[in-house]
Design brief:
Length: about 160
């Protein structure tokens, strides 16, 4: 990695952390995330990728970069599909979050973020279920992504 790539990755990580914080705050406060938040973060992330592609050499390199970008967004696309199938048993906002986070993190880090967040959320959900809250009680999911997101970025 040259200095330019390191600066781009640092900027990308910073923007992702801001996106994570804003989405988490909105999820806790309103139990929904503004569409503007997703669109702005996606536009900035795509802009960073396209700036990188502007310096790419051949068409094959651009093809692989775009394939990796699409792969990173795959977990979010799957969550959006599951949201539609379950009548929003899984919130659309969670699907949109992982769709956009895939732009910044790529497939493997995005999968780690999703899996780790689910592992943090599971004991809390189990506790609430055992306390008799049942299926009707909904908890915001994105606060569980914060410690995992920090780990994915800094480890």
């Amino acid at each position: 990695m040259n200095g330019r790539e390191v600066r781009r990755m640092s900027l990308q990580n910073f923007i992702f952390l801001v996106f994570l914080g804003v989405c988490t705050w909105q999820d806790i406060r309103k139990r929904s995330i503004s569409l503007f938040t997703f669109l702005a973060a996606a536009a900035v992330g795509m802009g960073l990728h396209f700036c990188q592609l502007a310096g790419a050499g051949d068409g094959q390199e651009v093809y692989w970069e775009m394939l990796l970008l699409a792969g990173g967004m795959l977990p979010g696309g799957i969550l959006l599909g599951l949201s539609a199938l379950t009548g929003e048993g899984i919130g659309k906002g969670d699907g949109w979050f992982f769709l956009v986070s895939g732009i910044y993190l790529g497939l493997w880090k995005n999968l780690i973020l999703l899996w780790g967040s689910l592992m943090l959320c599971f004991p809390v959900s189990l506790f609430l279920l055992l306390r008799g809250k049942g299926k009707t009680y909904r908890i915001p999911f994105l606060p569980f992504t914060v410690p995992i997101g920090l780990g994915v970025i800094f480890l």
